[in-house]
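Newbie here. four chains, one complex. Structure please?
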Amino acid sequence: MSDLDFHDHDHSACRATLLRAAEQRCRDKGLQLTPVRRRVLELLAEGHRAMGAYEVLDLLRAEGFGSQPPVAYRALDFLVSNGLAHKIERLNAFIACALPGSRHAPVFLICTGCGTVAETHLDLGDGRLGEIADRAGFEIGRAVVEIEGRCPTCREAA
Amino acid sequence: MSDLDFHDHDHSACRATLLRAAEQRCRDKGLQLTPVRRRVLELLAEGHRAMGAYEVLDLLRAEGFGSQPPVAYRALDFLVSNGLAHKIERLNAFIACALPGSRHAPVFLICTGCGTVAETHLDLGDGRLGEIADRAGFEIGRAVVEIEGRCPTCREAA
DNA sequence: CCTTTCGTGTTATATTATCACATACGCCGA
DNA sequence: TCGGCGTATGTGATAATATAACACGAAAGG
């Protein structure tokens, strides 16, 4: 199985793995994976798709957490800042990081048919984007790479 | 001079070139480069930077065009749909296309120091991103590639 | 002349995101 | 033990970004 799959993998296992990795990471870095933060990560992992901040907020509210936007945004910011989740700019939505620990730039393949988002990583230092930046004397910080198109399943359906 | 420069180029010339290219393109494709649309493209070209929709709207309003958001959004949508401008998702802002006519995916280098945005293009079909998509059986549609970092000038200053 | 299409304009509203301030809790040094 | 400090949570209010829905007018084509 590739690291880049759209539909066929053990979803509950990846959710558990992901949460364990997050706990580990927070222990290592001295970060607090508080109840709200942990729950938001779980929601993203359970949903296994890009979710809007207000969608997350609705779920939090229903579970007795704070009900105002900053509650969701702060938890999401924490997760994103610490590499546990990503924001998909194109969708104004958030998704659990599928490959925690990787130091490469995340790349998202977004299916316009079913909305599924697959994550992989790319080493920017080397390759075309690296060349482009080097030639321009540009020092790369963070990168947003989001590709819209059709996943294998939706291609077959069409 | 590279096609990817941050600060040193003939700005008024590029603005004129850009407008001429837009007129040409609209003639060829049977599109209407109406006064609002043309003016918005000019504003983006004159600003030579990413501008928010409401910033554009304020300028339009001051010049006697309609004063409500759809006026700006519609003109911007037209320009983006027809390859005359791009939306920088990361900034929720718009910029004139610096390389009109190119059929490759636009790549933006965004300087976090001075806010300057440089545009270049990348052929996705071939290269790493193409490989990634191929391996996953993913059919590439449109791509968002936005790299934040520091331009040469801001690196020297630091 | 009539109809259709497209573009513009308006009002109203939806969606996404942040500010500002209050409270609580743990830690740690005085 | 207590006070100060940093951090996290919660709140109400508001900002920033974007779209829906509808009216009008101009141009094209029968």
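Moderator note: Helices of chain B lie at 11-29, 35-47, 53-62, 69-81, 128-136, 152-157. The domain at 105-157 of chain B is CATH 3.30.1490.190 (Dna Ligase; domain 1). Thread marked as resolved.
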